[in-house]
Write a structure and sequence with these properties.
It holds the Pfam family DNA_photolyase. The protein is mainly α. Among the domains are: 132 residues, Rossmann fold (3-Layer(aba) Sandwich); 324 residues, Orthogonal Bundle (DNA Cyclobutane Dipyrimidine Photolyase, subunit A, domain 3). The protein has 30 helices and five strands. A five-stranded parallel beta sheet has the order 3-2-1-4-5, sandwiched between helices. Helix 5 links the parallel strand 4 and strand 5. Helix 9 packs parallel to helix 12, helix 13 crosses helix 18 and helix 22 packs across helix 24. The longest helix has 21 residues. The radius of gyration is 26 Å and the shape is globular. The protein binds flavin-adenine dinucleotide. Flavin-adenine dinucleotide (FAD) binds next to helix 11, helix 13, helix 16 and helix 18.
Length: 699
């Protein structure tokens, strides 16, 4: 007879869970649905309030759903490091099997290896089933014969075409056995179960008896003061809770509260209510709603979805946080969207990479790349797929070869730019609205993420993508170790994508989707009364317009922190040098610390010059900002013409998902480089026409 711990992690659902099904197939006499509230997640990862809230809501929904199937059960939340706690539970509950969903990426990889060893030592059988991905990531990586990590959808598609199709989703279980302690009979109700299990854990050491040094202090200014000033993390005081004053003393194994994490939405300016509520029920509701619109699924084309959207009315599915925490099964979204598209009778059906299948395959691709590269994937040094650029504010390493945390301050100009970016105070409304939306809602559209990442790295600031990835790690509801670092590498042209000569315009790109600037009016309310003409570049508005809009640029809203075009030109030059040098995170010159000096010497660019005038002290518009008045602030017909002629070198709208040109094979790179140079040369020669508006139509 088996006695099973089912260890829930990023699979917070009952529907279509192969691992859960495998556990139930063991026909257990005792079944413990367990969640280890892992302090590593709290102290060593950058998790902001919104993601914690989403997670807690998802855990609560799961607990309620388990309880609906078996009223003597729920999700049993134990507080502590799984590596310390699980062996204790194996002993006390006489466990025969530990079952969980396979996770080969990021932090889970090492933790699970350790847990498996401990289980084997304790004589507990481990059952692991794939379920977080469509395919077994480890198997794809083994089948890859290119000798390099997979960085293109084509390579991935080639490999999976010879693998069996992912099985169709299965239903949620109709029954779940109760947790029964060794030598005991099934308890009469949940209260008795909770009391018995509580007693069984007497004397189990809490996390606080073996604390690790916190790596990430969520109270630090750098992390935006996410905790209340006096906020203490109380959820580790006992192994099984309760841990918050509002909970009753006898309430054990409950889902922790935000308060017990020392967090309070009010104290850090977060929204009182989550913009995206978590949990399996919400995930299934959202998916069903999207799939009802058969035309939406059949003709889904990512580049055509608008980045100017809110989490309350997303132009894409907004299912990523649910996939991240496994509230939604990947096979469910895969097959439901395919089925919906099949039933659509209209034309213009889309295909990968731009359609929904393509989007979900990107998720697989990043997981394969991360697994092949290993821990170095989160950084540049030691990362075999990330090109090396001489970015500002790179990760610094100590003598032990590990990243220094917190990072020592870098050069002042870049630090100021990073601070302005973080605060949503760059003076570029599209960027600021995106950052503020992310901080408030925990989500923004993919192409908004493109704009943010491109601006911070190769577009203008030349700041390492590692810094951007860290911020997203804190803010995103859907943060995922594979997709986040992978997309930052993509957008900074460090891996996956190499068309560095294409840069997003900070006003021209968003104008194509929304000339009214809806998102800006919402997230930068100080600019809400600006006319459409100036909404994306308010610093270009004449003073009378600024006064009328009750927002003086340089006083009520910052002047741009940099000169968009001048910086873009400098960055392009640097990119060319870095691409020609062909250094990767594993190159000798990078590992021995010489690459930065070599590149700086070659491209001859000194540090980006800050504007001479001091933005924020008066309304003196610097000359470089004036020069862009018509070019960036224009939306009217007459002005558009001016824009076209002045902005001829803009190559802002890119749709990497559409190009699928991202394998970093040598020939491919060389070809790209040639195309890059050729394209720029053509741009210089081209007669001044309205080609940018044509590009707009294409987008
Ligand atoms: C700089 C940057 C960082 C990002 N960080 C993350 C991250 O940490 N976690 C994350 O899930 N996505 C990340 N993305 C990818 C993408 O922006 C989100 O997956 C997408 O916006 C989620 O919204 P959606 O569910 O409405 O997407 P939809 O367009 O509806 O797509 C459906 C699903 O496909 C997957 N998907 C779509 N695009 C991508 C992609 N480019 N990479 C990986 N998966 C994709 C997601 O699971 C998504 O839920 C990042 C993108 C950028 C540019």
């Amino acid at each position: 007879m088996s006695r099973v711990i089912y260890w829930f992690r990023t699979d917070l659902r009952l529907h279509d869970s192969p691992a859960l099904q495998a556990a139930l197939d063991l026909k257990p006499e005792a079944f413990f649905p367990l969640w280890c509230w892992d302090p590593n997640y709290i102290y060593k990862h950058r998790v902001g309030l919104n993601r914690f809230r989403f997670l807690l809501e998802s855990m609560q929904t799961l607990s309620d759903n388990i309880h609906k199937v078996n009223n003597k059960s729920q999700l049993f939340v134990v507080r502590g490091d799984p590596v310390l706690l699980l062996p204790e539970l194996f002993k006390r509950w006489k466990i025969s099997h530990l079952v969980f969903e396979k996770d080969v990426n990021g932090y889970a990889r090492d933790r699970d290896r350790e847990v498996i060893k401990l289980a084997e030592k304790a004589g507990v059988k481990v059952v692991m089933k794939n379920g977080h991905h469509l395919y077994d990531i480890e198997e794809i990586v083994k089948k890859n014969t290119t000798g390099k990590p997979i960085t293109s959808l084509k390579t991935l598609q080639g490999i999976v075409s010879s693998m069996p199709q992912p099985p169709r989703p299965i239903e949620a279980p109709k029954s779940i056995p109760s947790p029964v302690l060794p030598g005991k009979k099934e308890a009469k109700d949940l209260q008795s179960v909770l009391a018995e299990i509580h007693t069984s854990l007497e004397g189990v050491p809490t996390y606080h008896k073996k604390p690790g040094p916190p790596k990430v202090d969520l109270n630090s200014a750098e992390l935006g003061g996410q905790r209340k000033k006096d906020g203490k993390v109380t959820c580790y005081e006992t192994v099984d809770g309760p841990d918050a004053p509002e909970q009753k003393k006898e309430e054990h194994f409950t889902v922790p509260t935000l308060g017990s994490l020392g967090m309070d939405p009010k104290s850090c300016g977060a929204q009182e209510k989550a913009a995206v509520p978590g949990g399996e029920n919400e995930a299934l509701r959202r998916l069903e709603e999207k799939c009802k619109e058969k035309g939406y699924m059949a003709t889904f084309s990512k580049p055509k979805t608008s980045p100017s959207c809110d989490a309350t009315e997303p132009s894409t599915t907004l299912l990523s946080p649910f996939l991240k925490f496994g509230c939604l099964s990947i096979r469910k979204i895969w097959y439901d969207s395919i089925d919906a598209a099949k039933e659509y009778k209209g034309g213009n059906k889309t295909a990968p990479p731009e359609n929904m299948e393509g989007q979900l395959l990107f998720r697989e691709m990043y997981a394969c790349a991360e697994f092949a590269v290993g821990d170095a994937y989160q950084h540049i040094r030691g990362n075999s797929i990330s090109r090396y650029m001489d970015w500002y504010l790179p990760t610094e390493y100590g003598k032990d070869g590990k990243p220094i945390e917190p990072r020592p301050r870098g050069d002042e100009v870049s630090e100021k730019r990073l601070e302005a970016f973080r605060a949503g105070q760059t003076g570029f409304p599209w960027i600021d609205a995106g950052i503020r939306q992310l901080r408030l809602q925990g989500w923004c559209h993919h192409l908004m993420r493109h704009s943010l990442a491109s601006f911070l790295t190769r577009g203008q600031c030349w700041i390492s993508w590692e810094r951007g990835a860290e911020m997203f790690e804190e803010w995103l509801l859907d943060w995922d170790p594979n997709a986040n670092a992978g997309n930052w590498m993509w957008l900074s042209c460090s891996a996956f994508f190499s068309q560095f000569f294409r840069v997003y315009g900070l006003a021209t790109f968003p104008q194509k989707y929304d000339s009214h600037g809806t998102l800006i009016r919402k997230y930068c309310p100080e600019l809400k009364d600006y006319p459409d003409k100036f909404i994306y570049a308010p610093h270009t508005a004449p003073l009378e317009v600024q006064k009328k809009a009750k927002c003086i640029i340089g006083k009520d809203y910052p002047l741009p922190i940099l000169d968009e075009k001048a910086e873009k030109a400098v960055c392009l030059n640097r990119m060319k040098t870095a691409y020609a040098a062909k250094y990767y995170g594993t190159s000798k010159e990078v590992l021995d610390g010489k690459a930065e000096g070599i590149l700086r010497k070659q491209h001859g660019e000194s540090h980006p010059q800050p504007p001479k005038e001091n933005p924020g002290t008066n309304n003196k518009i610097p000359d470089w900002a004036k020069a862009g008045v018509e070019a960036t602030g224009a939306t009217g017909k007459k002005d558009q013409k001016a824009s076209a002629s002045k902005d001829e070198d803009e190559e802002e709208e890119i749709q990497p998902e559409n190009t699928d040109d991202h394998d970093h094979e040598e020939e491919q790179e060389e070809e790209d480089e040639k195309r890059g140079t050729k394209r720029e040369a053509e741009d210089e020669k081209k007669p001044k026409s309205n080609s940018s508006s044509k590009r707009g139509k294409k987008a």
